[in-house]
Sequence to fold (263 residues):
Amino acid sequence: MKKLSFVLVFAALLTPMLAAQSAFDGTWKIDMNTADFPKKPDVFLLQNGTYECKTCTPPYSIKADGTDQPVTGHPYYDSVAIKVVSDHEIEETDKKDGKVVTTSTATVSPDGSTMRFTFSDSSNTNGGPAVTGKGEATLVAKGPAGSNAISGSWRTTKIEGLSDNATVWTYKVSGDEITMTTLTGQTYTAKLNGVDVPMKGDPGVTSVSVKMLGKDTLEETDKRDGKVIGVFKMTVANDGKSAKAVFDDKLQNRTTTSDATKQ
Fold:
């Protein structure tokens, strides 16, 4: 689980632009009731003792025998254990350097049309409380005959009970800089001119840049080792108390939109 993340301004225009940016100051929270999840589904296959996460970035294929199986290329975990509870349910445990960072369950309804899942994720909380929540996904395409009911293409339709540390962040504008902090320990201070600066506290994001698009829209670009992995845009409403948030996941080519409210 992860958190929700967010040209060039000439000196002659800087003063009026910064005056408008004060609308971003404060603590914001995503309203999950307004979230529009990506249409692109997740694809899994559990068959003949092997579990495949085909849409993970990067994809992996491991033994589904309940033991830790090494995976590579994932900044938040380096092993995955899949326990097959039944032909309609699995439990997953992810570890990093031998330490449990994520646990989750996925259970498919008797008719095979709905998957319900729960999770507890401390992979990116810097020693703080885990991000917790639950949700539902709808079957888009069945897996092959004889495979576990988990197999197939699933589109997330609901996430609820999500802990505040996954949905709350704070902005502070000072001069021509903006500082972002989260409850899970991520932070950066960036000039509002699109220049890359380090992201602190996030093993999956090495740098970030921020720029203004007009007077009321802020755009944050996240990179990992120089490659753009996500773009977050936030547009504050005229009342200054609400905003539209859009996150483009460039690794998986997915977009999530939602409303945010100032706390």
User: Anything to note?
Assistant: Helices lie at 11-21. The chain has two domains: 11-36+165-262, 42-163. The longest strand covers residues 131-142. The CA atoms of residues 68 and 78 lie 9 Å apart.
